[in-house]
Amino acid sequence: MRSERPPRRQKDTLKDLNVRPSKGRGQNFLIRPEITESIVNFGSPPAGKHVVEIGPGTGAMTSYLAKLATERLTLIEIEPNFCEHLKSAYPEAEILNQDVRQADLSQIGSELYVFGNIPYVFSSEIIFHLIEHRASVRQAVLMLQKEFAERLAASPGGRDYGSISIAVQLYADVELGPIVPGDSFHPPTKVESQVMKLTFLPQPRIVIDDPKHFEWVVRAAFSQRRKKLINSLMSRGKWSKEVIMVALEQAEISPGIRAEQLAIGQFAALAEALPR
């Protein structure tokens, strides 16, 4: 009886493609098929949708995405050698050789379902790029450093809750998925990773008249998160204590509260009450 050939090692594929994992690009490649399959299952896009993969590399996740009943499959990859490999392995897919942070996702399509094992070092930039293109993106399933994923999903009152939690949750529902140990990658990572799903809302969770002012207020509030909210706001030097007290009263917020205790709606009310 003929035995099945063992799966090809990731390091051997990289060697054949003449690519060495780059620390500068934050390249860590998944080597456990069951993990990759669990990521795709967690995302489970509806049939007939346009799926986009960020940084497919050698195609570890692509092999599962290609089996889905998708309308289109687009792969965005910065490494030219990987692009040539992907063109050969997945001729039905559209391959874009570019940095996703510069990609105009609206030109790729609408109602996009995005997947990606993205570099830790560029996680924030990529997520905010997706938020910027939220009119074209329905859902994003991303592999992130576990600590970072927890911050994005955090609720008011916890130590992980902060300005980035609010910035993301203003536009999307956040759901945490499988936790992935460091030895699931080549090269292995020193920390755990976690899969996270962003489902973008048709409209922002709260209507914000002046997004830049709102962002400034939120960042000011968290600038000294161990202090009371009024002291954090005063430390920025933009408003006097009297002005802040009036704004807190208008927003129906206690001056003795800390920033991490405020929900997004309360931040919106505070930003509306504070002078530009």
Describe what you observe in this structure.
The protein is α/β, with parallel strands linked by helices and 276 residues long. It is built from 12 helices and 9 strands. The strands form 2 sheets. Strands 4-3-2-5-6-9-7 form a 7-stranded mixed β-sheet, sandwiched between helices. It has a two-stranded antiparallel ribbon with strand order 1-8. Strand 5 (112-117), helix 6 and strand 6 form a beta-alpha-beta unit. It is elongated and about 65 Å long. The protein starts with 9 loop residues before the first helix and ends with a helix.
Q: Characteristics of this structure?
A:
single chain; 276 residues; alpha/beta; Rossmann fold; Helicase, Ruva Protein, domain 3; seven-stranded mixed beta sheet; two-stranded antiparallel ribbon; 12 helices
Major sheet: size, sense and barrel closure?
7 strands, mixed
Span between termini: 76 Å
Which fold name fills CATH's third level, the topology of the largest domain? Rossmann fold
Mean pLDDT: 91
CATH architecture of the largest domain: 3-Layer(aba) Sandwich
In CATH, what is the class of the largest domain?
Answer: Alpha Beta
Summarize the structure.
This protein has 276 residues and is of the alpha/beta class. 36% of the residues lie in helices and 18% in strands.
Per-chain topology:
Layout: H1 10-16, E1 29-30, H2 33-43, E2 50-54, H3 62-65, E3 72-77, H4 80-89, E4 94-97, H5 105-108, E5 112-117, H6 123-132, E6 137-145, H7 146-153, H8 163-169, E7 172-180, E8 185-186, E9 193-200, H9 211-221, H10 229-235, H11 241-250, H12 264-273
Helix pairs in contact: 9-12, 11-12
